[in-house]
């Protein structure tokens, strides 16, 4: 695989250098982003022949829905209701403004927005231009944003003025000052909508084919097992396949009303079935600033919401809510739950207590997504994390020597298929570790598979913490803790938590000359917050220890720390 890649300049150091731009790929009209591992030609051909890749761009799909469902409401954001026709107009006017700034095909643009209607304008305008959004989560802060902008060599950064008390406008100024590639740091004004960002909505473009369906459509973030998050390049062709199938498997139609209660830019919220599945089906999307029952239940009741997608801790909040009986939730037909393992006890309660069908979702931004089907028996829905989307998803369960295991025996999950990437963006060393030579992605998940192909997640091999669906890389936090002047060594692990499944715990060894009384969890949290990282990565617990437990080969025993 490695020989096929076209890398940006890589100096052999620990972090690969960012790509420098685009080169012309195998088709003259197809621009291959440097640092992307393409699907091998014979696979691409097969996926096209079988009708998975239809040669359509995300913008084509969007404008198809604008035509077909013009008068349907697409987005509800507070009191504002936007029809598909209106959304299409807004997108083309913003695309005009962004294009006048010089943003076009192949340009990377870091999008850092919460669950607001303008997210749709921005993302579909970028798709129309063939620009490549890089999806940051609203929770991300300076360290992450600076990294995404410089690693992707972003031409622009788009954020909101402020959200949940955080001054994003100040962050935009910092990013513009410190990342040379960022020519435009654009801030959506919520206070007064005719200020700078509003002025970008000018003369509309007309919808045209401005990129190739085989192009990279966007860069999504990986959950993270390394010091820095990896970027995941997804093409129009491959992503649209999952969107069409997800909308079908999740039963979406133009009559559906879907509550968007998780962070909008997460891959799950984008596509499983997510906002793109809703757009494809012509459904109505109701935006919620959070999934908490006091926010979500009134919206379900008011807008007759028919489905929503949650992570397990939020599903538990819904199940255990004391205000549930105060709201009419009878419109709710399907609840997707995924991103982390849902316990069987919680799964069993969904139908009787919330009155809707549970659909488990086990997916990953790298590709493979599994769903339980709406017609599956209750016992299968409760006990498994579902079946792959595509008959051409190649799913292997292997032992540590790579030998395939029989049904029912847990092992490492490897996968390859029509919508699973062949490599991370500009990360040759990580790709060598995380992909087999024949292109299977090593997910790091331990699963067992039944005779029908349904998967049950039983554990995890990768060094990652799954904090209720939010993924945390221990190495990233350890590196930040090691930059504290009082800390000699740091080890970060996931420990069991009733609600989140796992929470983040840091063990630290102080330098010899440091008075332990001078270091407190409060001060360490403050230190990490000042480093500018997403709040969900900041350890929930700290323990100061004299030394770390060791394995018999003298490495830190994270297992002992997890169990201590
Ligand atoms: C989703 O995507 P990511 O990229 O944030 O995280 C992927 C990882 C998986 O490899 C697995 O470790 C874990 O999250 N995971 C689950 C799970 N769903 C995801 N572990 C146990 N049970 C589940 N149901 O999290 C994601 C992407 C698309 C759709 C849904 C989730």
UniProtKB/TrEMBL annotation:
Residues 476-555 form the AMP-binding enzyme C-terminal domain. Keywords: Ligase. Pfam families: AMP-binding, AMP-binding_C. It comes from the Bacteria. Residues 65-425 form the AMP-dependent synthetase/ligase domain. One of its GO terms (biological process) is fatty acid metabolic process. This is 2,3-dihydroxybenzoate-AMP ligase. It comes from Denitrobacterium detoxificans. The lineage of its organism: Bacteria, Bacillati, Actinomycetota, Coriobacteriia, Eggerthellales.
């Amino acid at each position: 695989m490695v020989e096929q890649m076209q890398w940006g300049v890589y100096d052999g150091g620990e972090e690969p250098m960012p790509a420098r731009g685009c080169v012309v790929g195998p088709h003259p009209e197809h621009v291959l982003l440097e640092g992307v591992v393409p699907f091998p030609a014979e696979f691409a051909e097969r996926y096209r022949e079988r009708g998975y890749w239809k040669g359509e761009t995300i913008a084509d799909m969007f404008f198809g829905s604008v035509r077909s469902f013009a008068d349907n409401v697409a987005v509800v954001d507070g009191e504002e209701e936007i029809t598909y026709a209106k959304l299409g107009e807004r997108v083309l006017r913003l695309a005009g403004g962004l294009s006048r700034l010089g943003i076009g095909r192949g340009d990377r643009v870091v999008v850092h927005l919460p669950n607001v209607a303008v997210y749709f304008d921005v993302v579909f305008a970028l798709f129309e231009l063939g620009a490549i959004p890089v999806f940051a989560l609203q929770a991300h802060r300076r360290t992450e944003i600076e990294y995404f902008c410089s690693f992707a060599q972003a031409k622009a950064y788009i954020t909101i003025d402020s959200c949940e008390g955080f001054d994003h406008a100040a962050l935009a100024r910092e990013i513009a000052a410190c990342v040379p590639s960022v020519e435009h740091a654009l801030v959506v004004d919520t206070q007064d909508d005719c200020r700078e960002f509003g002025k970008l909505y000018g003369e509309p473009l007309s919808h045209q084919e401005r990129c190739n369906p085989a192009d990279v459509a966007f860069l999504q973030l990986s959950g993270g097992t390394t010091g820095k998050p990896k970027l995941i390049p997804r093409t129009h062709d491959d992503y649209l396949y999952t969107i069409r199938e997800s909308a079908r498997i999740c039963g979406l139609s133009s009559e559906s009303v879907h509550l968007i209660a998780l962070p909008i830019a997460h891959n799950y919220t984008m596509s499983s079935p997510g906002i793109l599945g809703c757009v494809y089906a012509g459904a109505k999307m109701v935006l919620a600033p959070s999934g908490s029952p006091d926010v979500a239940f009134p919206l379900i009741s008011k807008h007759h919401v028919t489905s929503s997608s949650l992570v397990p801790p939020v599903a538990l909040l819904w199940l255990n809510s004391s205000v549930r009986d105060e709201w009419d939730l009878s419109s709710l037909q399907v609840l997707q739950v995924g991103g982390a393992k849902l316990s069987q006890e919680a799964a069993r309660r969904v139908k009787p207590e919330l009155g809707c069908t549970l659909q488990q979702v086990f997916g990953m931004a790298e590709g493979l997504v599994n769903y339980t089907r709406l017609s599956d028996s209750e016992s299968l829905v409760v006990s498994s994390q579902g079946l792959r989307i595509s008959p051409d998803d190649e799913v292997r369960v292997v032992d540590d020597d790579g030998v395939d295991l029989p049904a029912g025996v847990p092992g490492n999950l490897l996968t390859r298929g029509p919508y699973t990437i062949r490599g991370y963006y500009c990360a040759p060393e990580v790709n060598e570790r995380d992909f087999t030579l024949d292109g299977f992605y090593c997910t790091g998940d331990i699963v067992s598979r039944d005779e029908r192909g349904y998967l049950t997640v039983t554990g995890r091999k990768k060094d990652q913490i799954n904090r209720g669906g939010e993924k945390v890389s221990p190495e990233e936090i350890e590196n930040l803790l090691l930059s504290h002047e009082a800390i000699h060594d740091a080890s970060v692990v996931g420990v069991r938590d009733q609600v989140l499944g796992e929470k983040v715990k840091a063990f630290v060894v102080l330098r010899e000359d440091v008075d332990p009384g001078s270091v407190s969890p409060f001060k360490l949290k403050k230190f990490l917050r000042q480093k500018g990282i997403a709040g969900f990565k900041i350890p929930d617990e700290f323990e100061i220890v004299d030394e770390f437990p060791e394995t018999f080969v003298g490495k830190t025993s994270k297992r002992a720390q997890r169990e201590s």
